[in-house]
Design goal:
Number of strands: 17
Structural class: alpha/beta
Number of helices: 12
Largest sheet: 9 strands, mixed
Distance between the termini: 25 Å
Order of helices and strands: EHEHHEEEEEEHEHEHEHEEHEHHEHEHE
Bound molecules: nicotinamide-adenine-dinucleotide
Strand content: 15-25%
Shape: globular
Length: about 350
């Protein structure tokens, strides 16, 4: 692998008549590019939701590859095309193998392929577990902001399920100006709860950190609740746990029984995407036969088309859109390119003459 002159890579990528160089961007490079960029990335995610809402994107359904011999695992393909300033196509290919965690390696691993708008050529392969966690956390922080604007700003946050995604969500909340009196933690795994507590304490938080043995106690004590478990089906069904009208970021999508959603105001990132794959909103649609329980999308709230009520629980269930991976991935690519550290694989596209 050889470093490339940023100016030549930039013109090659935008030149429709030449084959772009193919680059590989490591997780370390991705992390460096995103370090301390929480506010900028939340703004980027907001702009991307607006582009998607305006139709300047193509985001077909994700494809779930599942295995009869490994029922808890899956690999998901998220193809997408994004307009706006990024003008990029691509695919995130993300594995979820929950049993990895017991062996001390992360559940999720991913790559993101970026394709050139004009030639269709793939021009970069990026380590994407960090991009995926980053766009998920930025979307959660954005939702926490917009969905709490007409209500009392939350002061007690509770995390149900505290792996990598919960850590990223916390750091995006902190990095975009949120501070809390209390940080609550609940996880079925004692080790995860202890690990997350250790992370919070090391992060220098001024908040009181409490670990709760029961989800009920944590939810009742929190006005912002974040679900980031790996639950495959609902494990929370008692509507009374939500009688204090919290804002709920239902990032793991399958924790809440239909009755909880039916007693709440519900927002999603994209209606067609979210009502699939037995997510809790999908279960409600199957139960009721309609989509009347949905108040709208986050973009509807940002565009002022839908008000967020202050007197009932509010739940945001984001399916996770490929266009967000593209936006964050292209941002990382541009940063690595302009730093001069882009590593190109020489001769990657080799057969370029039509008749040899
Ligand atoms: N919506 C999106 O855009 C999006 C994007 C990325 C990840 N996710 C989801 O976020 C979730 C978390 O991902 P991660 O990488 O942090 O996983 P992880 O495996 O690192 O952590 C999950 C934690 O949840 C805990 N847990 C499992 N069931 C629980 C339960 N019933 N109650 C309390 N704790 C429970 C586990 O013990 C573990 O500590 C996954 O479901 C993943 O699919 C969603």
């Amino acid at each position: 692998m050889t470093p490339i002159d940023p100016t030549s890579a930039s013109s090659a990528v935008t030149d429709p008549l030449s084959v772009p160089p193919f680059a590989v961007i490591s997780g370390a490079q991705v992390q460096r590019a995103l370090q301390g960029q929480e506010k900028e990335i939340v703004e980027l995610v907001e702009a991307t939701y607006r582009l998607h809402g305006a139709g300047d994107s193509v985001n077909p359904p994700s494809y779930f590859l599942r295995f009869p011999d490994r029922p808890s695992s899956r690999i998901i393909a998220l193809p997408a095309s994004l307009g706006g300033p990024a003008r990029v196509d691509g695919l995130k290919w993300v594995s979820s193998f929950p049993e990895n965690v017991a062996s001390g390696i992360p559940r999720a691993s991913a790559v993101l392929i970026l394709n050139d708008h004009d030639t269709g050529y793939p021009f970069a392969c990026l380590e994407a577990s960090i991009i995926s966690a980053t766009r998920t956390a930025a979307s959660a922080a954005l939702a926490a902001d917009w969905l709490s604007r007409g209500r009392q700003r939350p002061t007690r946050v509770g995390f149900v399920g505290v792996g990598l995604i919960a850590r990223y969500i916390h750091s995006f909340l902190a990095g975009t100006g949120w501070s809390f009196d209390e940080l609550g933690v609940h996880d079925l795994s004692v080790d995860s709860a202890a690990g997350f507590r250790g992370y919070l304490e090391q992060s220098g938080t001024a908040s009181q950190v409490s670990v709760y043995d029961s989800a009920e106690e944590l939810i009742r004590s929190s006005d912002l609740v974040v679900f980031a478990t790996v639950a495959a089906e609902p494990h929370v069904s008692d509507v009374s746990w939500f009688e204090h009208d919290p804002l709920v970021l239902h990032v793991s999508l399958r924790d809440l029984a239909p009755e909880i959603l039916l007693a709440s105001t519900n927002f999603v990132d994209d209606v067609d995407h979210c009502l699939k794959a037995n997510t809790s909103p999908h279960l409600v649609e199957q139960l009721t036969g309609n989509r009347d329980f949905l108040a709208g999308t986050l973009n509807d709230v940002m565009a002022g088309r839908v008000e967020v009520p202050a007197d009932c629980p509010v739940i945001f269930s984001p399916f996770g859109l490929g266009v967000l991976d593209l936006a964050v991935g292209k941002n990382v690519y541009d940063a690595v390119l302009s730093s001069g550290d882009l590593h190109v694989i020489d001769d990657f596209f080799h057969e370029q003459r039509r008749y040899g």
